[in-house]
């Protein structure tokens, strides 16, 4: 699926637009209506084995690592297992402690990233159990791991990851429900997340249609593409969204972008805030809403321009512009909030006439050290 560009100007915008379908493919056949859990046949784990794991450690590079950050939060929230994510490219150079009761998850769109493969091999050499979340069927990492989840996002041609990112997070939500339902996740809670997942394709469609109609994100992109630097911030689930948003923005526009956890602003980057430095902030309407708006107030007090991603328009004293995103379940909001940031990066790159699908100095899959 998806290796042809068709009528689209770039693969990047084509692949952003494909996300309703790619998420559907990730979910297809995996929602178990009877037991309110996820059916994940490829995991290759018995119930007993799956219940014996006490921790989850996720490894990947670039966008795969940021998807892993969200995966770790999903697993911790829904399965109540301690879970962390780390760059495979750093992990491989440490001498990691490999524990028998830790489930290791290698994340890779291509299944060929050498740093991720090296981490898998080191884990396996020490007896670690590694599963994969991979897009390309039959790829090297898919073959090396002991079971896993294919995301079935279809061929991703643009160097910048988009549909593989959202599908990977959706796959993590399935894994979290699967592990959770073997532990203490109530059937109604499992159902709530599964219903939330099933609604995502329609909600992504809404985001894409709203942009076609109003062009809000394109207008914001044209404004901030002229700046020297952009700050992306978020808390909790918004923090990996900010990291992925900044990565996307800098890699395709070549404009410096930096992601910070909102509460860390006061420990350094607040010194940068001025009318010259726009901030893109992830502000979901959840239990941290007030914390997030008080961060915006601090930025506004220093006359920093603010673009908010939120579930409803924020007052002008908090944000110059709000990009309104449909509401999902709080655990899944990050998937929807990622989509406008992909569009933001795309339109900035187009405004600056960059090589959108093949940014300078980058490769789609990094198979050399
Ligand atoms: C490269 C790509 C990124 C990607 C990363 C990991 O740096 O440019 O878009 O996120 O590799 O790739 P993988 O195929 O392992 O997900």
Structure characterization notes:
- The chain is α/β, with parallel strands linked by helices and 369 residues long.
- The protein has helices spanning 11-17, 19-27, 47-52, 63-79, 88-91, 114-125, 140-144, 163-181, 187-214, 216-224, 238-253, 289-301, 333-351; strands at residues 31-32, 37-38, 55-60, 83-87, 102-108, 129-134, 148-150, 229-234, 256-261, 279-283, 306-310, 321-324.
- It has a five-stranded parallel β-sheet, sandwiched between helices.
- Helix 2 (19-27) packs antiparallel against helix 9 (187-214), helix 4 (63-79) runs antiparallel to helix 11 and helix 9 (187-214) runs parallel beside helix 13 (333-351).
- It is globular, with a radius of gyration of 20 Å.
- It starts with 10 loop residues before the first helix and ends in an 18-residue tail after the last helix.
- 54% of the residues are buried.
- The mean pLDDT is 96.
- 6-O-phosphono-alpha-D-glucopyranose (G6P) is lined by residues 61-64, 108-110, 113, 116, 159-161, 362, 364-366.
């Amino acid at each position: 699926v998806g290796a042809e560009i068709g009528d689209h100007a770039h693969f990047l915008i084509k692949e952003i637009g494909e996300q309703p379908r790619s998420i559907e493919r990730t979910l297809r056949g995996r929602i178990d209506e009877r037991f309110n859990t996820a059916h994940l046949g490829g995991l290759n784990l018995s119930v007993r084995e799956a219940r014996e794991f006490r921790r989850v450690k996720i490894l990947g590079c670039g966008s795969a690592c940021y998807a892993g950050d969200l995966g770790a939060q999903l697993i911790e929230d829904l399965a109540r297992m301690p879970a962390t994510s780390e760059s495979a490219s750093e992990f491989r150079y440490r001498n990691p402690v490999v524990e028998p009761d830790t489930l290791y998850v290698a994340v890779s769109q291509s299944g060929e990233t050498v740093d991720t493969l090296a981490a898998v091999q080191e884990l396996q050499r020490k007896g670690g159990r590694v599963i994969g979340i991979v897009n390309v069927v039959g790829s090297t990492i898919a073959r090396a791991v002991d079971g896993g989840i294919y995301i079935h996002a279809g061929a991703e041609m643009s160097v910048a990851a988009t549909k593989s990112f959202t599908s990977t997070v959706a796959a993590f939500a399935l894994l979290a429900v699967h592990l959770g339902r073997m532990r203490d996740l109530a059937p109604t809670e499992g159902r709530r997340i599964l219903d939330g997942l099933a609604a995502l394709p329609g909600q992504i469609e809404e985001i894409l249609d709203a942009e076609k109609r109003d062009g809000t994100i394109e207008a914001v992109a044209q404004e901030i593409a002229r700046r020297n630097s952009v700050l992306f911030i978020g808390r909790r689930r918004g923090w990996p969204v900010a990291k992925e948003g900044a990565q996307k923005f800098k890699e395709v526009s070549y404009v410096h972008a930096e992601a910070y956890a909102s509460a860390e602003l006061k420990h350094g980057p607040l010194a940068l805030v001025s009318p010259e430095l726009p901030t893109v902030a992830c502000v979901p309407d959840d239990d941290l809403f007030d914390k997030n708006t008080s961060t915006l107030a601090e930025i506004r007090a220093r006359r920093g321009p603010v673009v908010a991603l939120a579930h409803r328009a924020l007052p002008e004293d908090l944000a110059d512009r709000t990009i309104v995103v449909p509401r999902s379940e709080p655990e899944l909001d990050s998937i929807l909030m990622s989509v406008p940031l992909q569009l933001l990066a795309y339109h900035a790159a187009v405004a600056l006439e960059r090589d959108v699908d093949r940014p300078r100095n980058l490769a789609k899959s990094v198979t050399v050290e």
